[in-house]
Amino acid sequence: MITAFYQFHPLFGERDKNLQMIRAGTKKREFDLLVLPELCTTGYALAPEERDLLSEPIPDGPTTSFFLRYSREKKITIVWGMAERDGDRFFNSAVLVHNGFFLGKYRKIHLFLDEKDLFSPGDLPLTVWDVDGIRIGVMICFDWAFPEAARTLAFRGAQVIAHPANLVLPLCQKAMPVRALENRIFTVTANRTGKEHGLRFTGKSLICGPDGKILSRARKSNSFGSAEIDPAQASDKKVTPRNSVFEDRRPSFYL
């Protein structure tokens, strides 16, 4: 399986141009799973009126329709982040599609800074989807700071975590190899680049393996990165012949 990220600088408020930028940056590449940044079709630093204008229903909006067509064309799986409207509520969401089929969505449960003024906290469970026999979980950006998120996905059978992000702190890229190692899974973090409304995004998207090794890493510029992986390796939770990161847990000693 080839996992990939596409790291780029979304044009603020320009959904259609951003979708075409994603297509142009990935259409000649070979991969099975593509992970794109958080809020990658709208930009990040939304004012309330911009959020109202740019948010869409899922799966009935134009962005999901575009990715359904693109995933069918390339026969791939895509995970991306976008602003979701559900009635009078708004969520920072990620969507999973595969080969023209909508599989599901996840709503960010750990909101960062001013996101708390724009979005409702996620109300959907941390979910793992079976995609042609490969178990894919999803979390969004600041979820990285809570080890419970990745651990929950791993306990629910995730072999790969797709992680759309808009990172402004230089910390997540240090933490994700640990999240992969402590759960013995693969992770794909897709960050964005550039500056927006006083925020500078850190780039440096990365793919990590179950041993904590970084399999692909971007710099701060727009880039595509990929790594060929064997998801079955994530089923082996042993660190030594006598130690397992799952079986050796002592929950009675934890908070």
**SSE class:** alpha/beta
Taking the sheet with the most strands, its summary is: 6 strands, mixed
Order of helices and strands: EHEHHEEEHEEHEHEEEEEEEE
Categorize the overall geometry.
globular
Indicate the CATH class: Alpha Beta
CATH homologous superfamily (4th level) name: Carbon-nitrogen hydrolase
The total number of structural domains is 1
Flag low-confidence runs.
Answer: none
In brief:
This protein has 255 residues and is α/β, with parallel strands linked by helices. It has helices at residues 15-26, 48-54, 62-74, 115-118, 147-155, 172-183, and strands at residues 2-7, 33-35, 77-86, 89-98, 101-107, 128-131, 134-138, 160-164, 186-190, 195-196, 199-200, 206-208, 214-217, 223-228, 238-240, 243-244.
What does this protein look like?
There is one protein chain. This protein has 255 residues and is α/β, with parallel strands linked by helices. It has a single domain, classed as Carbon-nitrogen hydrolase (Nitrilase/N-carbamoyl-D-aminoacid amidohydrolase). It has helices spanning 15-26, 48-54, 62-74, 115-118, 147-155, 172-183, and strands spanning 2-7, 33-35, 77-86, 89-98, 101-107, 128-131, 134-138, 160-164, 186-190, 195-196, 199-200, 206-208, 214-217, 223-228, 238-240, 243-244. Strand 7 (134-138), helix 5 (147-155) and strand 8 form a beta-alpha-beta unit. Helix 5 (147-155) runs parallel beside helix 6. The termini are far apart.
